[in-house]
Each structure stands twice: as C-alpha cells, then as structure tokens.
Amino acid sequence: MLLNHLLLGLFGLWAIYFFLLKLILFKLVLNIILPLIIRYLLIPNLPDRVRSYAERALQKCDEICYSAPLEPKGPCNRNVYRTAMILSRVVDRDVVPEILDMAELWHDVPLASKVDAEPFKVTAREHGVSGHRPGVVYLEAELPATMPRKALRSLTFTITSCDQGHSNDLQDVGTYRNSKTWFEVKITPSRASRKQPIWKLGAEPAFNFPPRKIVTNIHAGQDFKTHTVTWHYNDEDEDIRKLIRTMGAGWKVAITAWGQYPIWDNYVQSARIDCRVHTVRKM
C-alpha cells in the first residue's frame, strides 16, 4: 500500500515536471526562437515589395509578445470608495475627498510599457555600427482622455538598462559619477492646451517644461539594473510640482535614451510609465 502511494506521488511529480518543461519550451519557441527565424531567415529572402509589410507585422508581434504586465500597486477603487463612505458618516462629506487626497489613497493608472527581446542599443558611433542615435524616444504614453482636470498626482518611470560595461575611469566604476549614458523625460502638452488663447477668460499661461534628465546608468555596470523615479504633485522641485499639477488629458510623456560619446553605449531592456490620480473628487 505504501509502495503504491509512493509510486503515485512520484508519477504526479514527474507529470508536473513534464508539464512545466513543455510550457517553458513552448514559451521559448513562441517568444524567442520563432521570431528570430522569421527575422533573420525568412524576411531577408522575401521580395522587396512585401518585405516592409512583413517587418511591420513582426514588430507588432514583438510588442504583443514582450509587453510588460502593468500591475497596480495602490489600493483598489472599491476599498477607497468604502473608506470614503465610512468617513462620510463621521465628518462633513465635503472634506472627505481632501482627507483621501492627503492620505494618498489614489488610483493607479498604468500608461505604457515596453520590453525588448534583445537589448535596445543607443550609440553615437557610426560607420556600420548598428544602433539608434542618442535622443531616440524609447517609450511614449498619453494621459487618458477621461482623466479629470487637475486629477494627476504622480508620474512614475521604471527603466531597466546598463551601459557598455567597461571604462577607463576605474575610480568611477560601479558608481553614478561621470556616467555618460542616461535617460530624459520629454513632455508634450495636449493640443487643446496649446491652442487655448491667452486672452480667454480664466485661461492659464502655457507651461513649457524642457527635457530633463531622470536617471543615469551605473558607470561601467556589467549587469542590467532597474531604476524607479517618481515625480509627485508635492515634489520638492518646483518645476516638477508645477508640471504634475498642470498636466491633464491628452498630454504626452516620453522617455528618451542618450549616450554622449562614441565609446559609450546605452543598452535598454525595458521601461514603463505609470501615473496615479485622485480617486474621489466629490461626494
């Protein structure tokens, strides 16, 4: 009897192991091996007039296969609404939204993400070296059209990257000193805000936010590292604070990748942009 249970247990473990192995192999073939075969073996042999269509289709496939899951990190809306109803029983309903705002019970809004199967290379080198020019837009997102006015509370940028992994400045290796590869944020106002006449009653003056560096790679870092930077509506930086309080529906935010000299390469593995908005604005 004991032997039968032991055999059944071993068989169950073997079945689970075999299933997991098949799942891993399937993911490997579908997400990596098959796109490589199509990209390097099939597409180069296609006629010129259809090759461009195949390349665009493959790029779209990459975006689907390697899209990063955006999981909210804050409380769910249901819990916030329940908290608002409980507070309304003990305090004036008009102050409930302000209390929730001060407690930062905000709604997480994932905006965009990108994960590359192979590192996205940014380099200033030329003469046959493959890569993208410094300043290229790696990821761009647009604030939803349904976002209420002045509801934005924070923007979060998450970037996984590294540089070329070697440097002659040995005293700076492993630090952020004198790193020549970095990322900037580019802000584009919505069309409505750009077209708003200054003389209009109650119109606010246009707010120009020049591109700003948000993070640099570790100097000669050999491993990919993830950096997360959050801009808050109560940020210590006055310009960032004003920006978050000004942005609204239709505004675009982009992450650009940079490398200053030909010997400095910026390798990007993934990036994502998230924001948080005021959940309860009126009771």
Description:
There is one protein chain. The protein has 283 residues and is of the alpha+beta class. Helix 1 runs antiparallel to helix 2 (48-65). It has a 4-stranded antiparallel beta sheet with strand order 1-8-3-6. The protein has a 4-stranded antiparallel beta sheet with strand order 2-7-4-5, with no helix packed on it. It has 2 domains: 2-61; 66-278, no CATH class. Mean pLDDT is 78; it is low at 62-66. It has helices spanning 2-42, 48-65, 77-88, 96-102, 191-195, 238-246; strands at residues 106-123, 136-142, 152-162, 181-188, 212-216, 225-232, 252-259, 265-278. The longest helix has 41 residues, at 2-42. It contains 6 helices and 8 strands; from the N terminus they run H-H-H-H-E-E-E-E-H-E-E-H-E-E.
List the helices and strands and how they pair.
Blueprint: H1 2-42, H2 48-65, H3 77-88, H4 96-102, E1 106-123, E2 136-142, E3 152-162, E4 181-188, H5 191-195, E5 212-216, E6 225-232, H6 238-246, E7 252-259, E8 265-278
Antiparallel strand pairs: 1-8, 2-7, 3-6, 3-8, 4-5, 4-7
Helix pairs in contact: 1-2
